[in-house]
Amino acid sequence: MKCLWDLNIGVAMIKYLAITASGPDESSWGTYCPGEYPSPPLEYHSCLGDLYSVAWMEDCDVHNLRTETIKQQYKLVKERTSNENSSCGNEYGQCGEEPEKKDDSGRTLRRDISTPQRCASKLSVRQNSDVAAGGTHSVVLTREGHVWTWGQPWPPGDIKQISTPVRVQGLEKVKLIAVGAFHNLALLEDGNLWVWGNNEYGQLGTGDTQPRSQPVPVQGLSDVKLVDVAAGGWHSTALTDEGEVYGWGRGEHGRLGFGDDKSSKMVPQQVQLLAGEDIIQVSCGGTHSVALTRDGCMFSFGRGDHGKLGYGRKVTTGHPSEVPIDLPPPKNDDGSGLGRWCAKYVACGGRHTLAIVEWRATESDGLI
């Protein structure tokens, strides 16, 4: 997911639009915290929402949501998500350069990082968007066009953890990076796309499902000029200079945008249902995707649980549909109400979507 810190957009004209996980008649507790009560116990002041489910999944093989009480569940998650316990997991060395301490049995211990600390101090990152976080690993792009990584690059147990940044060999003059749960994309200045990491659903676009520990080129994109790439949980997308979108990887729930075809794709295929829309950015979430057009419209597709597609209802679809932006005009509007909200940037998470939008006034002959 790319950072938005350096976007040069007038603050007065910006509203932040969140496509939320819960509707007006549905509480976050009811959505994320199933149990015997409709709300948290009285001694706790708020629901932890997604933090609850993320923390709880760590011990899903030990604890049973269906038999343990809400109070037992909530107490455990509150302990895990408190400042004392940490707000940044580092169990796989993904925070970088953490000294390796040993317990009495000689096993490596890693403490979580509860406040921001400097990491990878020897690396000079080119810009904010060149820092990316995966499921249990981190990746950065330096000013020299090199890619460095650390943490657990594949699912735990598949490959050794790396707590100190190491350079990814074989990549020179890298322009952009994108990181999924356990796979990585690097777009070179010459337009070639290289990939490495987990590949169980074909998310590397190599024509097979074999993982790659070293970068290899993606198949089937040599005849197009790529300008942007994105990586989701187990799928990937690429954008051409003509506004065309290509998708590959896991197709379940329609996250690739191929309509009723929800099969996984081992090599990139053009998303024909977005042809002619002049796409300028695509973001991939865990199980959904959103495409942004040049005129500020958003098209979402994939799994629609928690309302993350923004349609106002929980629908899962492989057919890209426009996301309505139902916001009132800004307070500094001249009162005419002539204009509309246009999206400038989109970002997909595991269970939610964010967008930056701006108000564009109109005249009788169209947008100014």
TrEMBL record:
<feature type="region of interest" description="Disordered">
    <location>
        <begin position="83"/>
        <end position="113"/>
    </location>
</feature>
<dbReference type="GO" id="GO:0008233">
    <property type="term" value="F:peptidase activity"/>
</dbReference>
<keyword id="KW-0677">Repeat</keyword>
<dbReference type="InterPro" id="IPR000408">
    <property type="entry name" value="Reg_chr_condens"/>
</dbReference>
<feature type="repeat" description="RCC1">
    <location>
        <begin position="296"/>
        <end position="359"/>
    </location>
</feature>
<feature type="repeat" description="RCC1">
    <location>
        <begin position="243"/>
        <end position="295"/>
    </location>
</feature>
<protein>
    <recommendedName>
        <fullName>RCC1-like domain-containing protein</fullName>
    </recommendedName>
</protein>
<dbReference type="InterPro" id="IPR009091">
    <property type="entry name" value="RCC1/BLIP-II"/>
</dbReference>
<dbReference type="Pfam" id="PF25390">
    <property type="entry name" value="WD40_RLD"/>
</dbReference>
<feature type="domain" description="RCC1-like">
    <location>
        <begin position="88"/>
        <end position="355"/>
    </location>
</feature>
<feature type="repeat" description="RCC1">
    <location>
        <begin position="145"/>
        <end position="190"/>
    </location>
</feature>
<dbReference type="GO" id="GO:0006508">
    <property type="term" value="P:proteolysis"/>
</dbReference>
<feature type="repeat" description="RCC1">
    <location>
        <begin position="191"/>
        <end position="242"/>
    </location>
</feature>
<dbReference type="InterPro" id="IPR051210">
    <property type="entry name" value="Ub_ligase/GEF_domain"/>
</dbReference>
<dbReference type="InterPro" id="IPR058923">
    <property type="entry name" value="RCC1-like_dom"/>
</dbReference>
<feature type="compositionally biased region" description="Basic and acidic residues">
    <location>
        <begin position="98"/>
        <end position="113"/>
    </location>
</feature>
